[in-house]
Design goal:
With about 190 residues, this protein is mainly beta. It is built from three helices and 15 strands. The protein has helices at about 15-20, 40-50, 165-170; strands spanning about 20-30, 50-60, 70-75, 80, 85, 90, 100-105, 110-115, 120-125, 130-135, 140-145, 150-155, 160, 175-180, 180-185. Strands 1-2-3-12-7-10 form a six-stranded antiparallel beta sheet.
Length: about 190
């Protein structure tokens, strides 16, 4: 097999999605229904529609020795029960799994974080800003703007994902809700440690 040559591509969801190395999926409301605080609002919304909340594509399997993976995520604008659309969120599962870097391409939102001991941190996301997430901090992104939130991410190729702990804990310590038309950070009443 011949070695992979260097390449370039545009930093857009469409360009990543069309790459021969792309892996990813749209996540619909039904895929992340446990993430929202208002279960009745989620059930009511699902009676009407099952919208795509976000798309993400990572470039994987570029070559056998690939050490880094990079991807792009687009969270669409919207709310359910007054809470902004968000990603599912995950821990990088093992202690030696790597850190992660995000960079916002466009849009506005929040990066919700929690340490293994449940300590919270919440950072605003805005175009051009870069975020470093240590390996042991779970991460979820929220689109609190009226436009798409698009961000680039790069992380170690051998990372394993732990979504289950997020579900078991009832999500992240904080939520981003819309109050009087603007985003507000509130405590998540469903959150609890293991
Ligand atoms: C991967 C990185 C992102 C997310 C993507 C979707 O380590 O954190 O590429 O995978 O934003 O989020 P989630 O929580 O559905 O994987
Ligand atoms: Zn990650």
């Amino acid at each position: 097999m011949s070695a992979t040559l260097p390449f370039e591509l545009l930093l857009t969801q469409q360009a990543f999605g069309q790459s021969p190395y792309a892996a990813g999926t749209p996540r619909r409301l039904s895929d992340i229904k446990d993430s929202f605080g208002d279960d009745a609002a989620v059930a009511a919304a699902l009676q009407i529609d099952n919208p795509i909340i976000y798309d993400f594509h990572a470039l994987r399997s570029i070559e056998a020795g690939q050490k880094l993976i990079f991807g792009v995520t687009t969270i669409y604008p919207g709310t359910v029960g007054g809470e902004y659309y968000m990603t599912k969120g995950h821990f990088h599962a093992r202690e030696h799994d790597g850190d992660e870097v995000y960079m916002v391409v466009k849009g506005n939102g929040y990066l919700l974080l929690q340490a293994r001991d449940g300590s919270p941190q919440t950072l605003e996301m805005y175009p051009g800003a870069v975020y470093y997430t240590p390996a042991t901090w779970a991460h979820r992104t929220v689109n609190s703007g009226a436009e798409e939130l698009v961000f680039f991410s790069i992380w170690a190729a051998d990372v394993q994902y732990d979504y289950e702990t997020i579900t078991r804990r009832g999500g992240f310590p904080q939520r981003i809700v819309q109050r009087d038309g603007i985003p507000v950070v509130v405590e998540n009443a469903k959150f609890h440690l293991d």
